[in-house]
Specification:
The complex is a heterodimer. By secondary structure, chain A is of the alpha/beta class. Helices cover 35% and strands 14% of the residues of chain A. In chain A, the strands form 2 sheets. Chain A has a 4-stranded parallel sheet, with helices on both faces. In chain A, strands 1-2 form a two-stranded antiparallel ribbon. Chain B is elongated, with a radius of gyration of 19 Å. Classes of the chains: A alpha/beta, B alpha/beta.
Chain lengths: 177, 167
């Protein structure tokens, strides 16, 4: 069985040296708490993803957080109507840094088949998205792959991502303070 | 109790409201009656209280849009007389420049949300409604989306531009 591999570093008898960035990145990546925002069939696929057969717990996401304050990953799964857009935005604003967003399925990514006046054409109209998972609905394997991509981001991103000029500009574009 | 025959219904309505009943149509499922919108409350009240009719359940109240006709917008009430299990439709047509009709809340409390929905999607004004504001769509919406002149598709969609389809 493959366990989490340690980050690159210097190893000797009784000691291991690496950078703090990488230690924290590894720790974060393997203990992400997802906040599932499930509105339709993609949410059903997510239930399968969480259950024993696919088991998202293998990736350190055993514990779902239904409070945005403690969540690391916002997983938006399903059609978001325009009337629900302020709710999604509020949930995102309540999450603490570092935070990532995953748009699961065609609807959350682009509006999907619901090209209509009442449906948001992708959640990236209101919050920045890190990973898009295609599919209608995506299979649990695809959701897992999307989650692994989030883990890669958590491992390799600068710990001071939120202080970077680029990130500040991104949030300003969405009018999120 | 047996169903109220359509002929009896038509006769009763026409003798009570000789000028307000514009036309009737015996559709396969239930009777359609087109009537004068200025008498909508009186007609509903009569159908509700008349002991031989008792249409006391408002199944649905909705709008309809026939663009290009003289009276474009319509309000349709589906009524159900539970004792006799008789159903009927009442249709009131309104000009698009001034789509105003009185609220049916004085007869059916359940008309409240259905009238709000009809206002939300068709822009039909229900005079006397206590809370006539949008119910399903976002408050900022400027159009009445079920009217045919309003585009159904969202203008923000970026992947449906003609250039991607060689048009």
């Amino acid at each position: 069985m493959k366990t989490v591999s340690p980050p690159a570093g210097v190893e000797g008898p009784g000691f291991f040296a690496t950078s703090l960035d990488q230690i924290i990145g590894t720790a974060r990546a393997n203990s992400l708490w997802p906040l599932p925002f499930a509105t339709s069939c993609c949410g059903i696929e997510f239930m399968a993803t969480m259950a024993s057969h696919y088991d998202l717990g293998r990736f350190g996401a055993e514990r779902l957080s239904f409070s945005p304050r403690q969540a690391d990953v916002l997983m938006v799964m399903g059609t978001i109507a325009k009337k629900m857009a302020p709710v999604v935005k509020q949930v995102y604003e309540q999450m603490a840094e570092p935070r990532w967003v995953m748009a699961v399925g065609a609807c959350a990514s682009s509006g999907g088949i619901f090209d209509t006046y009442s449906v948001l054409q992708g959640i990236d109209e209101i919050v920045p998205v890190d990973v898009y998972v295609p599919g209608c609905p995506p299979r649990p394997e695809q959701i897992l792959e999307g989650f692994i991509q989030i883990q890669e981001l958590a491992k390799n991103e600068s710990l001071r991502r939120r202080n970077s000029e680029e990130y500040k500009q991104l949030l300003a574009k969405y009018q999120i303070a | 109790m047996a169903k109220i025959p359509n002929s009896v219904l038509i006769e009763k309505l026409q003798s009570k409201f000789p000028l307000a009943i514009y036309g009737t149509d015996e559709a396969s499922d239930m009777l359609n009656v087109v009537a004068d919108p200025t008498y909508n409350v009186e007609i509903l009240q009569y159908l509700f209280h008349e002991p031989s009719l008792k249409f006391q359940f408002l199944t649905a109240l909705c709008g309809i849009h026939y663009p290009g006709t003289e009276k474009e917008l319509g309000v349709i009430c589906h009524l159900h007389s539970l004792e006799t299990n008789t159903r009927m439709r009442l249709k009131f047509f309104l000009p698009v420049q001034n789509p105003v009709i009185r609220t049916a809340i004085s007869v059916f409390m359940t008309a409240n949300w259905m009238e709000r929905e009809t206002y939300d999607f068709y822009g039909i004004i229900f005079e006397g409604h206590p809370n006539l504001k949008r119910i399903l769509n976002v408050d900022e919406m400027e159009a009445f989306p079920m009217r045919k002149e309003f585009p159904l598709e969202d203008p923000n969609r970026l992947d449906k531009q003609d250039k991607y389809f060689g048009r």
